[in-house]
Amino acid sequence: MITLLAFALPSLAAIGKVLVFLVMLSILVVLHEYGHFIIARRNGVRVNDFALGMGPTLLKWTSPRSGTNYLINWFPVGGYCAMKGEDGKTNEAEQQRRFRGVGVVHDQDNFQAKTPLARLAIVVAGPIANFIIAIVLLVTSYAGFGVPRTSTTIGALIADKPAIRAGVHTGDRIVAVNGAPVQSGEALVKTIHGSVGVPLRLDVLRGEARLTFTVTPQIGDDGNGSKVGLIGFHPVSIPQRVPLNDAVAQSFTDFGNIVGSTLSALGGLFVHPAATAAGFSGPVGMARASGEFQDAGWGAYFSFAALLSISLGIFNLLPIPALDGGRGVFILFEMLRGKPVDPEKEALVHVGGFALLIALMLFVSFHDVAKIVAGKGVF
């Protein structure tokens, strides 16, 4: 019985982490849809259904004022905002012909009846909501739990790199480089980055013992495309509490850095598609990473949720059919040419784009599972 419990408890813990991840993902998706909802209502568009979860309806409440059905569905993952004219209950192509053509518009609360600018605002409101949520999550993480600062303590070591070959261990704390005391983790990283091919004498504390190692940084990529000196370790980050104004400033800085690195990674798909694609993760990879961040504490998990929210926002803004960005492109095209794209052609492009997205998701998920089975982790 004890043996069975020993095997069962990790499984229960893993299930719990997956459930926490699904709750977090659902909140981000529902808030994304709420962005669409707010701007749609402000532009006089009727929202027929606003739902938490997918599948059959568990609970339903209809607003007597707006007529919107608020739903909680049986499968509580994700959600949707079904506007009049975009809910699949009527022929959307026919509505486009009716409301985007010339003539008197009688059904003013239909999404298709609105101006291109209003429809564009509604479409991009979801991704913008994701960006706002990310800022709020980062501020909450930094103000409540601290801004992560690079320390001089050695974290994970990379195999077959100078540090591990010299005998450095995880948990060692670097106190001096070439006899000069180390002032901060940032200063240590800067010294290593600027010392390609230059031997460095590291004084480290391992418990009560003071040890000395000589390592020579080799040239490598810092993750942002720059070539720097690396010895092959990840420094431990230690959260430091900061005033609220500093947390806000740091949040906007990190938001910009995350957006920049994400766009850079997406750009790499066009330059080095095979190599870059291996670094992307699907739902399986994200769930696994979520468990690791949960172990690191709530501050780290809020930051992970912010990263995921930014990724959702950027992904939805991509000019891919069936995504918000793809729909926005058609609206922009309509604004430039003065008339909408033929609705049947637009619908065909969206169906093809949706099929491509499903295929891509299946490919990335298979790649995640293959890496886990091979024991390589996800990142």
Structural summary, described in words:
The chain is an alpha+beta fold. The chain has two domains: 2-145 and 290-373, no CATH class; 149-240, PDZ domain (Pdz3 Domain). Helices cover 54% and strands 21% of the residues. The chain has eleven helices and ten strands. It has helices spanning 2-42, 92-99, 116-145, 162-166, 185-193, 244-271, 273-277, 283-295, 298-317, 324-337, 343-373; strands at 47-62, 69-83, 147-157, 173-177, 180-181, 200-206, 209-215, 218-221, 227-230, 233-240. The strands form four sheets. The chain has a four-stranded antiparallel sheet. It has a two-stranded antiparallel ribbon with strand order 1-2. A two-stranded antiparallel ribbon has the order 3-10. A hairpin with a 5-residue loop joins strand 8 and strand 9. Helix 1 (2-42) packs across helix 3 (116-145), helix 3 (116-145) runs antiparallel to helix 9 (298-317) and helix 8 packs antiparallel against helix 9. It is elongated. It starts with a helix and ends in a 6-residue tail after the last helix. Residues 1-9 and 365-379 have low confidence and may be disordered.
